Protein 1
Amino acid sequence: MNEHSPVREIKGIGEKTEKLFQKMGVYTAGDLLRYYPRTYDIYEAPVPVSELEEGTVAAVEGCVFGSVQVSPNRKLQTVSALIRDLTGTLKVLWFRMPFLRNTLRSGSRIIVRGRVVNKRGGLVMEHPEIFQPVEKYQEKLNTMQPVYPLTAGLSNLTVMKAVREALEHIHLQRETIPESIRQRYHLCEYNYALRGIHFPADKTMYMYARKRLVFEEFLEFLLAIRQMKEEKEMSVNGCRMEKKQEVDDFLSQLPFELTNAQKKVWKEIRKDMQGDYTMSRLVQGDVGSGKTIVAVLALLEAACNGYQGAMMAPTEVLARQHYQSICEMFEQYGIPFRTELLTGSMKAKERREAYERIETGESQIIIGTHALIQEKVNYRNLGLVITDEQHRFGVRQREALAKKGNMPHILVMSATPIPRTLAIIIYGDLDLSVIDELPKDRLPIKNCVVDTGYRETAYRFMKKQVEEGRQCYVICPMVEESEAMEAENVIDYSTMLSERMGPEVTVGYLHGKMKQTQKDEIMEKFAQNQIQILVSTTVVEVGINVPNATVMMVENAERFGLAQLHQLRGRVGRGAFQSYCIFMTASRAKETKKRLDILNHSNDGFYIAGEDLKLRGPGDLFGIRQSGLMEFKLGDIFQDAGILQMAAEAASSEEIREFPVYGRADRDNIHVL
Ligand code: ADP
Ligand code: MG
């Protein structure tokens, strides 16, 4: 067996399990080895009952106090006991384990470990693991058990066993980092790192393993960027454009004036497109800063110069939204160019017709998803390519779009709040423009962080907003374990909310498992205000623009990264109405409160990202990832800024250039930037 062997060859994996693994993107033994745990279960020292916190998993050591009860409910037989230590008494429940009545003796010492929840005002531990005699806990103390991303039918234990098998039977030889560099930055060997990331003996081993793998991830990424940059460096502008009066006329007809920041960025773009070299520019601007209109101006200028312009968005919903708003604007201001929409869910016939109009040049502006880079699409004269919400794409995809033309200009839009120093490393191949100002008419969003007791008040508030003609979003908590469960969750929630809101309010829902046409339909209805409250997973997080929506309520806000919450919040406050953001949290942990307070007091994405990092500190590796930012497998550009810096140094070193894998860096695997 080697890294390329199908997972089926691993002992214990049959056809059924193989299918489940494939569903999770694991095809080969190598994929499995790189299927990293999403977190770890750490058996920490027991804590006193008085210090237990709601929502955490903890161990408690004490004596069984009084008699053990078995509830008469046949459907869900519950065993309950009281555990007492010097600081207090804790109620503990087990489900469907009636035999425990005979093993738990009043007065005996015991350690229980499980989740602490709040039930009718008191803390209760649910279905804990039992350690008796208490010495048994010693064996597990401080060990870290991997917790893998799962799907229905695939258990954590199955994944653990498979990974263990693979680690045992694959002879690993791969070393992608030169010895001298490993020594300089204290990086462990590849084999050790793989073992350490799956089955760390302790935290130290985990930290070393992770550091090495994150370093490697960053290094490969940086090398790929560098290579691209070298290929492209100073390419002569083959799509030279002139300043067109039509674009200025269009601009003067818009119902608003550009902000100074927008004007400045538009000027930079224009100058690039006229200049001697091909443009490669990143436009960074916080959510709602008005990046789209700048992109539209660039597309229009390209079209006026006789070139095609294409804009790629990460989701169909977003692509369609851009398409519609451009069509509306062009119609309203009498712009004669044809705009084309190209997405994966279009019918074959529609798509063929679109291809044809693109190939003949009948369509000058093309908006779409990944469909834009399909092999069958031939552009006639592609002079400008734009990627919106860039952090969702791989380097490869941006490159693929550019290859559809003959060295077209490249414009990249991103709302990712990255400090300039980091941006220069990450987007090393791009020039940087920043829109650091929001349109003047915006009222700052009013925020509140509340506990679940406030839910009814929040519903009443939303109902009132709807009565005033506004619309609302409700974000359901993520269900990490499976998409199917997540979908169920969203549907249940929206049914409940619909009943609660009464017949005058239409509640719709959106989740990742829906078919594209269904999603479009829902978004369309929401945009038209036929749906007033949209219950959704985070699929609405990127880019969606419905200025009439004024309330964003996020359930289980503690489960999201701050940057992601900031993106979600960016869906409201996009028009002239006062908007509100309600962060609902069930957790009473102080940490959570502190984190959410940052959002509560600032609407500035850059500031939030910085504070979040400060609060968690670079050492906190188990914190919530800044998910949605850069989709590195393990690395996080904020948390691991130090490692990123090291990798950047290493990427420019001589040793790397001489190392055989350089140039072979697997660029297809890079899904970042
Ligand atoms: P983002 O930067 O998040 O992509 P959008 O480009 O979607 O933001 O813009 C958000 C909203 O602000 C849109 O409805 C857009 O029409 C509007 N907008 C853009 N620029 C201005 C401006 N200068 N003045 C007023 N409204 C603007
Ligand atoms: Mg946008």
Note: Residues 617-629, 663-673 have pLDDT under 50 and may be disordered.
Protein 2
Amino acid sequence: MPDIEILSVANPPPFLLEPLQAKYVVHERLHESDPAAFAAIAPKIRAIAASGESKVGAELIAQLPALELISVMGVGYDGIDVAAAKAQGVVVTHTPDVLNDDVADLAIALMLAWSRQLPRADRFVRAGQWTNGPLPLGRKMSGARLGIVGMGRIGQAIALRAAAFGMCIAYTARSAKPELPHTYLSSAAALAAQSDYLVVITPGGAATRKLIDAEVLKALGPQGCLVNVARGSVVDEAALIAALQAGTIAGAALDVFESEPNVPQALCEMDNVVLAPHIGSATAQTRHAMADLAFRNLDAKLSGNAPPTPVPECR
Ligand code: 8YV
């Protein structure tokens, strides 16, 4: 059997890269590092291995006439031009479900870290400040009002956990889910107006770009906290910084940013903000499960079988 060539556009962990290299000829980001060498092998590339943060645009897809599949190791695929892929008969797959627990756990962890000031408390003890007096009081999270923007699989996993904290849960989504016991509101602003914590867990992409804008933040109000575990693009970052500086909202806990890995200095300087470096799915267990599914998607398609988890548009 002739060698099968694939292109990796991400920086896959060794537990994905090694199985891929064992079976395929993997060109690691060759399109960026050596465009001339890439042009020579481009006609033979049959699959792309990508991550949730990868950008695969129409231009790259058009250079790959033999492309059959784009396998994303991540649930989000907003960086992939799915319409261009479909137009060329290319299937896009992702890794849903296996990361629901971890992302939901992190949303709760960020809410607690912000409410109970854990990063600040840690710095306070290490700096020997305790001997001068106690840490200023935090906020109670249990029993507070939680608004969830996006009630998909991860949103529901967050609601399940929040219910154990006695939180009063409402949500907004493209449409109401009558099977859920929570209150549905038709807009993010209406939801924010009746939330103490507004947790964003909606897919990224054009449809949700800057969904959380100045108006939504104003509705969240001076006691409200914004939590983002979705995509940086969903929040208007400039409006968020302005709202934090003006006291329009009380604070924020953020795992994702508009221009990752670059985080605005203004956010780094604020004491009422908890920051994390996009670690929603970053546990060994979950990343292994994601890598395994990403590999199975790729391997199935290249062996002539149906990949297990195509994105909805490719089902
Ligand atoms: C990862 C993610 O950052 O699943 C997603 O959409 O954003 C993350 O889980 C990444 O895709 C890991 O490869």
Note: The first strand starts at residue 5 and ends at 8.
Protein 3
Amino acid sequence: MTVTMTAPLGVFGGTFDPIHYGHLRTAFELLQELRLGEMRFVPAGDPPHRAPPRATARLRLALVRAATADQPGFVVDDREVLREGPSYTVLTLRELRAEHPLRPLCLAIGMDAFAGLTEWHRWQELVELAHLVVAHRPGWQAPRDGPLGELLAARRTDRIADLHEAQAGRILVHAVTQLEISSTGLRDILAAGRDPRYLVPDTVCAQIRATGCYYSEPSTR
Ligand code: ATP
């Protein structure tokens, strides 16, 4: 077992179209409770396997910056917005691994995202590059069967210390406060002209209002 001196680097990817308190509270609880050194928000520029985002990558990135600005330990990483081509998480983790050869990496994902992991580009490599930290999400159960059930059986741990003592390879399912907020729901609220207050930070509300993006026709990247 390798004992490292640097606290794990959390990686929180997503489309963030737009970012909301479900993302922020989850990231905050994981940062604190798993004793991560930082939580990096990595907005996808061109997210694969889903419909194109409603907002431009630049605006989604700006909203993530606005939402996270006042929280120590929250860091915004714009590499997927700047990179050409589909925003494959495996590419980001390879880069982070090269930049931080010894540091534990923890890829944070919701249970809904974990349930679809086998659709991700080179998904088996993800757990070689990083630990997976899976946050409970309302309405989702941990897979019991199939490749993900097998992966969980082989890699699962309940020991937070395991995330600190190796660079990658373990899966920790962690209970977080359940907030039934989704970007899809927010886009519906905004499209209906309703106020998103208390679902997203006020700074995000202000920027959404200023750009008018989610109230108007879909934007192009
Ligand atoms: P959409 O509704 O557009 O699919 P979303 O709200 O699921 O978006 P994403 O940006 O796709 O947001 O999610 C990024 C990550 O955050 C994913 O790993 C997802 O599981 C997680 N996540 C999103 N909303 C929540 C929530 N309310 N609680 C916990 N995790 C969440």
Note: Residues 14-17, 22-23, 26, 109-110, 112-113, 135, 137, 179, 181-184 surround adenosine-5'-triphosphate (CB under 6 Å).
Protein 4
Amino acid sequence: MPEALTAEPRPSPVAAFPLPGSHAACLDEAAPTPGCAPAAERLQIIDGLLRPQARISPKYFYDQRGSALFEAITRLPEYYPTRTERAIFERHGQDIARVVGSRRVVIEPGAGSCEKARALCQLLDATHFVGIDISADYLHGAVEDLRRAVPGLDARAVGGDLTAGMKLPGDLPAERRLVFYPGSSIGNFDPPAAQQLLAAMHALAAGAGGAILLGIDLPKDVAVLQAAYDDASGTTAAFNRNALVHLNRLIGSDFDPGQWRHVAFFDEGASRIEMHLAACRPQRVRWPGGGRDFAAGERIHTENSYKYPLPVFMAMLGRAGFRQPRAWLDERGWCALVHALA
Ligand code: AVJ
């Protein structure tokens, strides 16, 4: 087993979330208003905050501190997904390598640190690797490291987003492509958006011998889920609250994170964990040009994390055009690594 598949992951700033338009830091000098998000993004954030049920995208977790907090989350005793996926690779590595096949062109949306990619490229003796990430600067460094670590691998970085018309290198072989999407990141998308993302991945892998290898988190005992998203050390609570600090920088708001309580629960009907921030007391939050009053207990919805039953997910793969799906599970049946042909 390659070392990196057994090591603790180090997600990049932003990269853990392959969603459009993230900002790891305040770098946008062209921002016309206080706060550093581009005007369109600013309006989108404010629109979410002004809805009757206020909401923000989970991509706003991942500024620099948020990415470090996520890394800490992956090491918590309660947070099973990261080490469970690693256990699946340990338990089934040989079978995975046999089914996936060698000499592949690996394409990873949201590649970030490329750490899982390194292990996979070594396991499969990949010929090419393309990492795709919103955080292009970080990705370029990671891909350079990958090139050094895996001699002979043709490794490239592409800045952009799968769902927003990003372009692969023109000279990338169209055959034997493998789209790699680990970490159960697909759980952050609601089912229609997840379905769209799978279709986009199918288009990427569509040439001869194309396939997908993707990690998902399965439904399980509610107490296990609950603990994973509301850990005893309060790390997930800090991660959740940090989104407000990030927003303050992006839109110039004056959220006081200390005035917001972490709320996480499993919605059985929707099969998803929901995370919210609840106002500890009545408060007014302002930003340039506006603001909102929150009543005590009023919430901002910050994340959904869907737990797809395996048959449901297999059906989604089928609708996206994938064939011959198969899955490897950990011994408790908590997470799955799914492979299918494009
Ligand atoms: C990175 C989307 C897989 O949903 O488990 C961890 C993010 N949120 N704790 C997840 C997360 C709260 C994580 N993913």
Note: The chain has ten helices and 13 strands.
